[in-house]
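Hey, I was hoping to borrow your eyes for a little while. No rush at all, and the record is pasted right below:
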Amino acid sequence: TQRIDAALPTIQHCLAQGCKSVVLCSHLGRPDGSRVEKFSLKPVAACLEGKLGKPVTFLTDCCGPEVEAACASPAPGSVILLENCRFHVEEEGK
């Protein structure tokens, strides 16, 4: 949880300053551009929710119309975590 702990002060600062929402995107492991459940960020959402003390909305992708719609009009003060961006082959490589 070291990286989550490192990001917490920034997330909390943004929320305290009244931002509409915080949308988080990250990567985990090397799934070679395909969905590998052991590299899902869903457990990270649960951990982050516990540390923030507020709900974290987990989206099952990091791009596309559903993600755009969810991020376009979130509830004020919401925290959204997108799925592992390395599940897309475009995010792999150099």
Observations:
- The chain has three helices and three strands.
